[in-house]
Amino acid sequence: MFKFTGTIKVIQETQRISEKFQKREFVVSDTTSMYPQDILFQATQDKCNLLDQFAVNDSVEVSFNLRGREWTSPQGEVKYFNTIEAWRIEKQGQNQGMGIPTSGPSAMNISADSVPENNSSSEDDDDLPF
């Protein structure tokens, strides 16, 4: 999971791609660094409605997952695409977004929180009391 902090620059309308899939794109700008960045995020399905409570120029923190996929063209050329999939948006300094609240260090307005996976088959490896 990653987080990005900035100001909303653009909020587009929801696009219905197919009968079972819809997406809504928005741009968040980071102007705190020497080289400002405009980052395009995508919200899909029921997450499209998250953007209804926000407006251009709102300061937000976006929690997102980075997705990648391979595609082969009809000519046999292989290409790779990335998607920045937003799953929670919060106004800066408030817990009004959707999802599980987390905290973590931030570096250059982007942070990655590592969440350990419980793939262990032995309970001896788990020292947590719950």
Contiguous low-pLDDT stretches (5 residues minimum) are 95-108, 114-123
Strand content: over 45%
**Total strand count, please?**
7
Continuous helix count? 0
In which range does the helix fraction lie? under 10%
For this structure, the CATH topology is: OB fold (Dihydrolipoamide Acetyltransferase, E2P)
Q: SSE order, as H and E? A: EEEEEEE
What gross morphology would you assign?
Answer: globular
User: What distance separates the N and C termini?
Assistant: 23 Å
In this structure, how is the largest beta sheet organized?
Answer: 7 strands, antiparallel
Calculate the mean pLDDT score and round it: 80
Supply the CATH superfamily name: Nucleic acid-binding proteins
How many domains make up the coordinates? Answer: 1
CATH class: Mainly Beta
- Shape-level CATH architecture: Beta Barrel
Structural class: mainly beta
